[in-house]
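Suppose you are handed a protein chain with no further information: no name, no annotation, nothing but its sequence. What can you learn? This example shows the usual starting point.
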Amino acid sequence: MDDVWEAFCGKCEHSYVGQNHFSSGFMFFTCPSSCVKNFAVISFDSLLLFVLLFIVKPSLGTLRIPARLQGFSLSHIFSGIFNGGLGVVYFSYRVWILRENYQKFDTILPLHQWMVLLIQGLTWLLLGSIVIHRGRQHPISFLRLLGFLACLFVGILRFPSLVMVTVWKEVSIAVVLDILSLPGSILLLYCIYKVHKCEETRETTNGFSLHTTFICEGNRSGKTDSGSNVTPYAKAGFLSRISFWWLNPLLEKGKEKNLREEDIPHLRKKDRAESCYLTFMEKLNGQKRTRSSTTPSILWTIILCQWKDILISGFFALLNIVMLTAGPLLLNAFIEVAEGKGAFIYEGYILIILLFLAKCLESLSQRQWYFRSGIIGLQVRSMLSAAIYRKQLRLSNAAKKMHSTSNIMNYVTVDAYGLGEFPYWFHQTWTTGLQLCLSLAILFHYVGLPTIAALVVITLTVLCSVPLAKLQNRFRVKLMLAQDERLKATSEALGNMKVLKLYAWETHFKNVTERLRTEEYRWLSAVQLQKAYSTFLFWSSPVFVSTATFGACYFLGVPFYASNVFTFLSTLRLVQDPIRTIPEVISVVIQAKVSLTRIVRFLEAPELQCGNSRKNHNIEGLKPSITIKSATLSWENNPSKATLRNINLEVKPGEKVAICGEVGSGKSTLFAAILGEVPSIGGNIEVYGKIAYVSQMAWIQTGTIQENILFGTAMDKQRYQEVLDCCSLVQDLEMLPFGDFTEIGERGVNLSGSQKQRIQLARALYQDADIYLLDDPFSAIDAHTATSLFNYVMEALSGKVVLLVTHQVDFLPAFSSVLLIADGEILCAGPYHQLLVSSQEFQNLINAHKHTVGPERLADVASPRSQKITTKERKKLYTVRPFEARTRDQLIKQEEREVGDTGFRPYMQYMNQGKGLLYFTIACLCHLAFLVGLISQNAWIASNVQNPLISRLKLIMVYLIIGFVSIFFVLFRSLFIVVLCLQSSRSIFSQLLNSLFHAPMSFYDSTPLGRILSRVSSDLSIVDLDIPFTSIFAFGTAMNFCASLGVLATLTWQVLFIALPMLYLILHLQRYYIASAKVLMRINGTTKSLVANNLAESIVGAMKIRAFEDEERFFSKNLNIIDINASSFFHNFTADEWLVQRLEMLSAIVLFFSTLTMILLPEGTFSPGFIGMALSYGLSLNTPAVYCIQNQCTLENYMVSVERLFQYIYIPREALGIIKENRPPPSWPVVGKVEICDLKIRYRPETPLVLCGISCTFEGGHNIGIVGRTGSGKTTLISALFRLVEPTDGKIIVDGLDISKIGLHDLRSCIGIIPQDPTLFNGTLKYNLDPLSQHTDQEIWEVVEKCQLRELVKEKEDGLDSLVLEDGSNLSMGQRQLICLGRALLKKSRILVLDEATASIDNSTDSIIQKTIRTEFAGCTVITVAHRIPTVMDCTMVLSISDGKLVEYDEPMRLMKREGSLFGKLVKEYWSHFQC
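A reasonable first move is to predict its three-dimensional structure. Written in structure tokens, the prediction is:
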């Protein structure tokens, strides 16, 4: 038996360091080649081999590799290949060892040395083959047990090999194979557990798809939903997620064609806004339940939602820091090997492998850190954006005063998006400190006490950077406030551009914006200068630290070696990052706190309590639909400032109620009270049933006409057809290029006032509501259409509750009850005829209406009985025909995006602003000089660190002098970039502002305001803050990479054989990435505009949305828009990580071959100093490579903003404002005579004529009335007079001067107008009356008196200086129109245009205003466009237009007597109900 054991074991062939310290038994167990250990391995492998050969034998019949590979994930395949390959290596190595032993010793003894590897090789080879080929045909429990035993056995028996490497410092090929079998077994176990979970429910498919197999692990459902287009990340496996392989299909598609929005996959369910918001609310409500006494913390709620992902990303951050700090340690060990101080013979090769693995792990961990932080940020951004949108739908009116539309927009686009970037910085708050501490520990280990000097300098540098960061943050806050003021003014001006052009106020508002921009420049220059100083401090800190450290080494007598010097310099790079990052982290944390505080304050703002009064059902109509008992209401929730007092109202089902009263009496407020919008001070309000609401100011969504009418309800073609017919929309739709699929511009800019009101009315009528609240919808509609609509309301809504606010008293007899409101109280209520007898105030209202036309003219009106239009006749008049698709484009264009590679054009556009190219060139030269200094420093110390002829003092002094000279170039570089920034920003903004303020109205009609604002806000901010320094960083990092590669190539020229192909791959990867990333960035910009547009639109229409109780649909729509933007953002930042990871891997490969070259070349080829220099550059090679490509790609993405800005800089311009050689006389026009000669107008070249050859003359001093049905061309004629649209043919002559020959400013400033839509601006009442400050307070007070505004102004505490809120929201529609009238009275033009100027004013006030106009503008030419016939009855001449043609032009009385007169028909239609 002893002979057998001796033949098997033989004698020990190895002696180990420290062997005498261990017992014999311990040595036999821990020795990797001990007979005991090998016997255990052979026993286990034999057992495992028996199981595989006999128990699993039936499944090894036929192996068809393609079929077997079908449906497996990459990790599954990799596990099989890795373990099978390991078996082959085991087997081959032992065969070679057996052959060598036989040749040398003529024996194959001892048996255990070759048998163990032979059987081990066979076992692992067979195990790998079974896993990859036949694993799916075996029971999962069996395979899991097999994998677990293999992993456990390898872990126990491979422990001796680890001991040998770590303790005894010995390594061999057998030991390396033993260690590699451990990850192989772990991977095997992972595949068996994870992959077979996927295979349990997976259906077998034919064929093999690499992409499918690569992402199989994540597909737990067993089916692939190709139609849902969900991001492959949702189904990606472990290796696919680690390597970002799942993104390849999208990048490949982006290379083949220009990506579109539909090409971008949807987010996985977990990342969608709905899931994020629901999780957020669940955690928030949970806090409310557990902490009912305190307000729940929004920050803690966010942390509770994300804590798992935060911990995972934190783990990767920790791993990254550990791998990062391992670099200097490995560098020191490598230099010691080069100096002949290696611990064992193959230590250099082991260090190469460890160095390569460390760089790979560093890259993988950092990419996962950033990627997972990006996902957390995306989820936080989405949940906060959704929460803000939901909150604004419920915001009370008091809260709206504190949170304006622009503020709420900033909460989403600035604060929520900014907090979405914070998760990346969250881990920086502790990783910077950890990295700094580890770096200092390494320095202390290799340098000793001089580290204290370095620590002192680092501390001083950080202390200096902290106040700089605070100052930077202070300047950033000031800059943000200045940006908000400028954006507020810009938004107001651009949103009301038509009014500015009509009043010739463009120059004034442009100057106001420029003054605000000048203030913004002040803070922009401060921010950029602070950034320049911080950059200087960052780049100079290594020089200061090295000065202190080398000086301390000199005085303390610490010797200099290549190992400790270059370890110190390499570690210094690790110190440099925290020094730069700490101030940024402080700044970002402060900014995040500010943003979160703003959002929290908004989310905690008071909400409306409209649900208290509204009930959805009225059981069998037993209760009144609307009941108001002794209600007192106030918009300000203040009893002393009650808006409505002691209101009592009861409306039964099916009842019709009309509400009338003077301007500002509280009619619209009563509707708001019914809707639950006004805070109730006392009394009770109950409303039963579904409400449909038509507001006085039409609210139109961006979208098609059909979408606006349906308003989220299902299409009922018959009902839809009836609504179109009864709202007289059929003819209008036939004129539009796409019928009801025509897209309406923002706020309905491409529709007339009448069309907007009728679409809004159609929206209400299409809803099957119980209660219809109509707030003066007929004021902007001509008499015939108004009669038709009114008939429909009375006939079709016979069983519905209808409340109508109106100034048209001719409708009142048709109502069962009439309310007269004055000063916030109901003066009287009852049937029309009863009130005529019982109420003097009501009689005065009716008499005022009669007086506007006069009894003599009223007598000439034909009997109205024949004018009543029945439903049958209406059906006959309007026949809906199907709308055919037109080939013409929609008026509202898709947002412009550049296509493909634009080359250097945007770069040159940016650099060519002033002397920008010169400043950038100087900055680049400064950076090159700095780079030369850095290389000279390292070359000096590498060549002389061990030179006995150079003293240590000289070595240090020369090193430091070069460093101090170099850092001044950094300062000059930064200062020149600041100059470039300010000059380019100033030039680009000036051009953009000039372009926008001189753009024709056709541009604003076809361009949503959000698109323009996104350019003057986010795009301009990128140009101001990001592009300048990113451009120099892109150039600088490119030069740094070239320098690092050049140093490596100079010291080890052999590395060029691998470096040049790697460089080609890097450039190829960059082009491959840019093809998709640039488009993704563009789509991200346009979809972000959608988020802003939808939010702004919803804020304006919040009251209407609540009235229809449609909050859920709008919220769902907003979630979808957030997801669309988030998806492009997600794939965009993932593409960044995809690129960076590949660049870092290529850099690691270059480093691997560089170090391998140093090992393979003969000893003494390189001095230790140059080896240290090469390795220090090689270790950091990935940093400049990554930053080079990353900065270039970031700059490419930023240049999209330049493209977008220049798109609007180069838009067509309208005519000059002033033509110096052809200016009219100062007193022009003197007479006010207007001659229209064969005027033809079309809005766009491809559209039909809107005005078809109109010719007539308006004599000076005459009052001209212009009438016609909706869409006849009345407003177009007025636009032609102001040259908002230029004639296709013909001309207009004013006092003998062709208006097309003079400047636009000269023309518009000489003509007065009261526009149809009363527009007010943020500011005081005085500012709104006289924005140019051309009149005295006395003149303004006189105008206030004439406009019936004196009481309103006196009620205000500040009088003329009282504030007007955004869009004049604290004034009624009629009061706004009176202010617009005041502007015209102050201007006192010889020609005055009234475009439906008194549509929202009661008849009594209208009568007074008409008298005022006749008095104040006596002798002036007054051109009146009106749907109210009484308004034009006293005109000198009336012009009737139909379908863009002049039908008749004569005195009104003559036209009324003329047979077939259009004007006569309009008069009869208007008075039909009054005569009844």
